[in-house]
Amino acid sequence: MPVSDRPFKTSKYTLASAIGAAVLTASSGAAAAEIEEVTVTAQMRAESLKDVPMAVSAFTGDTVKNSNLSDFKDLFSLTPGVSGETTDSFFDSVSVRGVNNNSFGSGSDPALGIFLDGVYQSRAGATPSMYDMQRVEVVKGPQGTLFGRNTASGAISMVSRKPGDTVAGDISIGAGQYGRTEVEGGLDMPLGEDLSVRFAGKHFQEDGHVENLAGGRDLGASELNAMRMTAVYDGLQDTTVTLTAQYEDRISDGTIYRAFDNDTGYNYPIPEGDYDQVYNDVQGKDEAEIGDVILTVEHELAGGSTFTSITGYKTHNYTYVEDFDGTAEAIDTYVRDQGGDFFSQEFRLTSNNSGPFNYVLGASYYEEEIDAYFAGVDSEDFICDGIYADEWEEGLDSFVRCDALPQGVLDEAFGFEGEPWEYAPGQLSIEAADTLGDYSGWGLFANTTYDLGEATTLGLGVRYTEDSKNYRVDSPWPDTWTGTWNYQPMYTDGPITGDHTWDNLSGRATLTRVFSDELTAYASVATGYKSGGFDYLSYRITDPAYGTDADSQYAWLDEQGYEVNANNAEPYRFDEEKVLSYELGVKARLLDNRLALNAAAFQYTYDDLQQAFWVGAAAITRNVGETTGRGLELDARWLITDNLDLYTGLAWLDTEFTDAPEAFCDACNGNEMAFSPAFSSATVLTYRHMTGLGEISLSGEYTFTGEQWSDLENTDAVKLDSRNVFNLRIALTSPEDSWTAGLYAENLTGEEYYHWGYAEALYNLPATRTDPSRGRVVGANLDYRF
User: Fold this and answer.
1) Regarding beta strands 211-212 and 277-278, do their DSSP bridges make them parallel or antiparallel, or are they unpaired?
2) What sign has the CA pseudo-torsion 11, 12, 13, 19?
3) E strand or H helix that includes residue 62
4) d(CA 584, CA 600)
5) Spatial CB neighbours of 247, under 8 Å, sequence gap ≥ 6
6) Higher pLDDT, 89 or 697
7) Global pTM?
8) How far apart (Å, rounded) are the C-alpha atoms in residues 349 and 445?
9) What gap in Å lies between CA 529 and CA 575, rounded to an integer?
10) Which residue from 145, 158, 470, 701 has the fewest beta carbons nearer than 10 Å?
């Protein structure tokens, strides 16, 4: 979905006119339509996409709106090579070219950087929705010399619309099945010769679509309300000041779990019917309030270079609840309550592309405070039964409650030492942790290009980064008898703290060759980095009498007990991860500029990749050894006729995961990475025809995602099947382009699929799959512009 400086008004409701590396422009007279090169800012300055030596997919604001792409993960089905489009607010399944960070604690950061108007947004529960966008760019591979912190696998840059210099506006209303209602609009208001303001907002609401057999309304409902004000002042000489303030309030049901395995003898029902029927005894919750303020100052210096200052502040409150076991029993409920504040400052000096040498020089700084409460709520009876079945291999065929356990089991498993069990039917164990993260960091970066001749350009980039984290955890012993069996192996007697600083020097080199007006090729090598962090569910023993290896740590637990304090433990710290990536690419414009081809082949190696391993309901994050991946991406745009337009995007991927800690995964080595389909594609065919009533456009979309693993163990029972999704859109735009009316059908064939899967835990957790897909949705939109 490319960005073009030339307006194009004849395809408001088509995707093919806005995907990939080019945009169709309808020429006047008898001249044939052709593909015009587009402008992107992936390298922090306006450039022709054909000249940018990297794989970039650009989406216009019209595409984001008309295709109902409200969450950044909605882009993935149209961007082959990127996957993990779950329906919650987490980043833990997002995979770029096969690399994902599946840790969702507050002590780590995602490998994919999300940016809004240049300000970092990548915190679970704090990333705003996409609305009133000018464009969105998806960049694959490490981008540390351009985008800043934690972009080891890629970056998504969202650019909001800015006000025009005349009174103008637009409003879009829509309705569809499942109670879908949506309103989005914007208004430009000049407030003088030098000041203009744009007000924009969005409302979206949708009912649930998953039947809860445990009772209550259908699950999967959501509501979004967001507003933004953008003011641009250019009354100062050679200076433009832009102030953006926005607020968002969103509510949804969170992740929906469907249990599958009923072979353990537990007495809970498993739905045998439709894929979208579940038993959830707890109503899920995924709610966030997000506020952002961004101040951007751009000053044109003598000689044509530009100095830019970007100041950002964001705050958020986030609440999350899920029925993790996916059954009608109170087995396992996960709770998260989080708040945070983030401040960043970036300075950039950018050349004007007028000579053979061009550059982007910059410095950035950030501070973040994140306060999060985590809790795992479990039925004590299920804990008792699971321990009995696991450790003693008895009671496998029938459910054994706590009051039925032999005294010897109670003494050995829970340390009762002969004390009687204080049993209360339905009693719950609550394992809770309060965490506080205080983070800061800074970086210096430069990205330069030099024309070695008329046809060859050398690019060099470098970045030095320093990240500091102070992380505090307070997780007291649960006020129940069982305790310490599901979410974490030990507890704290008062807060314990970890403090560490990571630094890194990363770089990028590119060589671009223009063979002709029709053909450009490039080669690049880049290194990337993501800072280390702290695990919120496990601790490292620091008692000098014991070593740091696993045997010594377990020996301390056995001898000293399962409660630690600030004198003998710290939150478990994992190291930074690093990536080395190679890419070869070709960008071609053929058939008299009616065919655009973009291809990229890549290979990468990750060292010390951060990955989470499931132990019961706990996700324990550790570094792993060398993980490799390779693949090929291709997108093509062909104007078959002046009225018929074809886009296709393809991605092939091969990954290998190695050196997993045996204590957490003894059969992971050699496996594929999770959420890494071997093949994925997106195809859009658009036909448009001018009539006396205006232009009619008809667009058919087909996306394919190959089968993929949902865990590092590559568990067959929860492997995600391949899926084929068809969308259909038809629209009529008035001759004067003042209104557009459209109909759409999403998931036309009602394809049934899930977004994630969790393997059965040996105790108390059945195998589950999450978030059944929504069936066919038919709806209508009406746009009015003035």
Assistant:
1) parallel
2) positive
3) helix 61-66
4) 6
5) 226, 227, 289, 290, 291
6) 697
7) 0.91
8) 11
9) 11
10) 470
Residue 304: band (very low, low, confident or very high) from pLDDT cuts 50, 70, 90: confident
Q: Yes or no: say if 21 and 2 are a contact pair by the CB < 8 Å rule.
A: yes
What's the rounded Cα separation, in Å, for the pair 526 and 43?
A: 14
Q: What is the dihedral of CA 615, 618, 623, 629, to 10 degrees?
A: 80
Residue environment code for 351-381, b if the CB has 16+ CB neighbours within 10 A, otherwise e: beeeeeebbbbbebebbbbbbbebbbbbbbb
Q: Among candidates 427, 450, 316, which has minimal Cα distance to 378?
A: 427
pLDDT of residue 267: 59
Across the strands, what pairs with 219?
210
Report how far residue 129's alpha carbon sits from residue 290's, in angstroms, rounded to the nearest whole number. 10
Q: Is 653 exposed, middle or buried (0-12, 13-18, 19+ CB in 10 A)?
A: buried
- Please report, for residues 10, 293, 352, 593, 693, the alpha-carbon distance to residue 27 in angstroms, rounded to integers and kept in the order given: 11, 41, 30, 13, 20
CA 12, CA 65: separation in Å to the nearest integer?
A: 10
Tokens coding 657: 């995961």
Report which of residues 482 and 777 the model is more confident about: 777
What type of residue sits at position 580? L
Q: Tokens 């641009």 — which residue? A: 232
Q: Sorting pLDDT into bands at 50, 70 and 90, what band is 735?
A: very high
pLDDT at 19 > cutoff 70:
no
Q: How far is CA 10 from CA 174, 648, 688, 740, in A?
A: 20, 20, 8, 10
Please give the full DSSP string across 381-427, using - where no structure is assigned: HHHHHHHHHHHS--S-SS---GGGS-HHHHHHHH--TTPPP---TT-
- 721-731 pLDDT tens trace: 999 999 999 99
Q: Whose structure tokens read 């974490």? A: 488
- 514-533: average pLDDT: 93
Domains of the chain, earliest start first: 16-785 (2.40.170.20)
Q: What six digits make up the tokens of 591?
A: 């058939």
